[in-house]
Amino acid sequence: MESERPTLAVGVCYKNPRAALAWLEKAFGFETTMVVENPDGSIGHSEMRVGRNGLVMVGREWDEFHRSPASIGGVNSQSVHINLDDADDIDAHYHRALTAGAKKLREPADQFYGDRVYGVIDPEGHQWTFSRTIKAMTIDEMSKAGGRKIRERLEESQ
User: Fold this and answer.
1) Residue 102, CB-side half-sphere exposure with 13 Å CA sphere
2) How far apart are alpha carbons 81 and 52 in whole angstroms?
3) Nearby residues of 137 by Cβ (< 8 Å), 6 or more positions away
4) CA 59 – CA 70 distance, rounded (Å)
5) Backbone φ/ψ region at 114: left (φ over 0), alpha (ψ -120 to 50), beta
6) Coil, helix or strand at residue 144
7) Structural domains of the chain sorted by starting position, each given as residue range(s) with its CATH number in brackets
8) How would DSSP label each residue in 106-120?
9) pTM tops 0.70
10) pLDDT tens-digit readout, 110-156
11) In sequence order, what are the residues at sequence separation of 6 or more whose Cβ sits closer than 8 angstroms to the Cβ of residue 25?
């Protein structure tokens, strides 16, 4: 039975997508669900399932605008953020990533908005952040706990 495609997926480029797939499985527990090989045997596109409905597309560098951070001095224009399932132990997840060779960006820590969060960098320099909600909070509760103005939408300037 085919699963429904997620509304949003992230795509990341690697110099070596084959090695990236193996590493992402080992470090983060992602599941490879599709690999498209080019006639020369290289990987042109692949997909990995994450959690209940997440999808990470892993591909090769294919033009000057699609590069791994390893090819552009470690520069990232974004980071990938993944919310772990309630059953996942975020601290164990973090240690699994470090054991696989991830570089520490920030250790797991509780945040004022109710999540426990950590960040790591993969072998090619992509930044990954993982969180797990430990306390569900309303926007008002987050605002009070963080000492910041938080609202549902941006109000127009006066």
Assistant:
1) 28
2) 15
3) 113, 114, 145
4) 14
5) left
6) helix
7) 10-59+79-146 (3.10.180.10)
8) EEEEE-TTSEEEEEE
9) yes
10) 999 999 999 999 999 999 999 999 999 888 888 889 988 888 888 77
11) 31, 32, 48
